[in-house]
Amino acid sequence: HNVAFEEFNVAEDEQAREEMIKKSKNLAVPVIDVDGEIIIGFDKAKLEKLLLKK
């Protein structure tokens, strides 16, 4: 689908980990942020729905 994304290793990057916890209020991974819409865990249907809006 040629979607631009940025990947963070929250196990190694403390700042990224803190941002993930702030956004998701959770320690689960992955946390996917699509223009402020947060998806916790891998939810293919929700991810596709959000990407179709773009």
From TrEMBL:
Residues 1-39 form the Glutaredoxin domain. InterPro entries: Glutaredoxin (IPR002109), Thioredoxin-like_sf (IPR036249). It holds the Pfam family Glutaredoxin. It comes from the Bacteria. CDD domains: NrdH (cd02976). This is Glutaredoxin.
